[in-house]
Amino acid sequence: MDSYALPTRELEVVSKTHDDLFLRRANLDAGERPCINGDKCVCRWLAIFRYGEETDAAFVCREFLLPSQLKEFQNSGRVPKTQGKCLMCARYFTAYTYTLARNSPDFCPKSCISIQAFGNLIESTSPEDDVLGHSNSIGGDDGYNADAMLYVDEKWTDTAASRGPLGTLLWRPVVRFKTSDYVFLKNASDGLYTVIQTNIGANRSDLDFGQPPSSMTKRVEA
Can you give the pTM of this predicted structure? Predict the structure, then answer.
């Protein structure tokens, strides 16, 4: 074909501050829900891979809500009908699906076989909403660095997958999934662990630790 209109759709834009609200355990007493993936949650397994199976840093992260969903929850206590993934699992799943699509010209994001290979627990009538649920802001006081986005190259436009729901990745920035972007910290108040995003915020003056001096430097747990 000489030309083809690549599809895109509007997505809610999410700031770093909003994302930071969801890198902790769910407060069940307040009506919050944990990640739908349960014990398979990426956050839990990242801690296990780093610190061992007996670590107390491992936890199932809170279900991620879009800004509009969080506002509804704060005003009425209502949560989405379908329980969702946490922020880490959502990022991993988007990156996983894009990687499959980028390496297979015949990949279809609505294929049950490809989606289930991840162990996806959400049954959705709109698979594209599960694959790509929001975009992220870049720059400013509350955005991310441009180099923290999922890299989507131009050659991908030649594939069939880019003409489907995932084609929105060409026009909407989405934070990548990279394990070194997350650090587990223990709260002094309750002794429970939370997660901090490091080195990817546009404003690095708060809790970001900066680039380590060499690849051999070990990250010290605070």
Answer: 0.80
